[in-house]
Amino acid sequence: MSCCGGVAALHKPWLLSSTACFQHLPGVCYRLWDADKHLDEATAPEIYDADLAPLVLELALWGSPDGSGLAWLDPPEPDAIAAATQLLQQLGALDAKARITEQGVSG
């Protein structure tokens, strides 16, 4: 992940080889990457690399700042949720009980 101008951006690894493009379906497959690029099939889920602060803020708005009770495909690491919560508390977007503040709603 890189941060440019305060905006987080993920640099995604290639996910499929050019030969793996819907081989079981008839039709045409358009490769949207260079032929010499191949993807790692064991790439970690994006949630492990993403900035979780926006997610934690949205969860707090829903009333579940830690995301407990959600059916995650790949649940975020508890330490990453805790770090995002701490950052949002330092910024004044969440209170000490991880509830969204007025600043968090308007921010």
Structural overview:
By secondary structure, the chain is mainly alpha-helical. The two termini are 22 Å apart. Mean pLDDT is 78; it is low at 1-5 and 14-18. The chain has 3 helices and 2 strands; from the N terminus they run ββααα. It has 2 domains: 1-43, no CATH class; 45-107, Arc Repressor Mutant, subunit A (Orthogonal Bundle), CATH 1.10.10.2130. Strand 1 and strand 2 (7-9) form a beta hairpin. It is elongated, with a radius of gyration of 19 Å.
Write the layout of secondary structure elements.
Layout: E1 2-4, E2 7-9, H1 53-62, H2 78-90, H3 102-106
* Assigned CATH superfamily of the largest domain: DEAH helicase family, winged-helix domain
Count of domains: 2
Helical fraction equals: 25-40%
H/E topology pattern: EEHHH
Mean pLDDT: 78
Q: Compute the gyration radius: what is it?
A: 19 Å
Just name the CATH architecture of the largest domain. Orthogonal Bundle
Strand coverage percent:
5-15%
Give the CATH class of the largest domain. Answer: Mainly Alpha
What is the rounded distance between the termini?
Answer: 22 Å
Name the strands of the widest sheet in spatial order: 1-2
* Low-confidence regions: 1-5, 14-18
- Give the number of helices: 3
| Biggest sheet details | 2 strands, antiparallel
CATH topology of the largest domain: Arc Repressor Mutant, subunit A
- The number of strands is 2
Overall geometry comes to elongated
SS class:
mainly alpha
Keywords:
mainly alpha; Arc Repressor Mutant, subunit A; two-stranded antiparallel ribbon; 2 strands; 26% helix; 6% strand
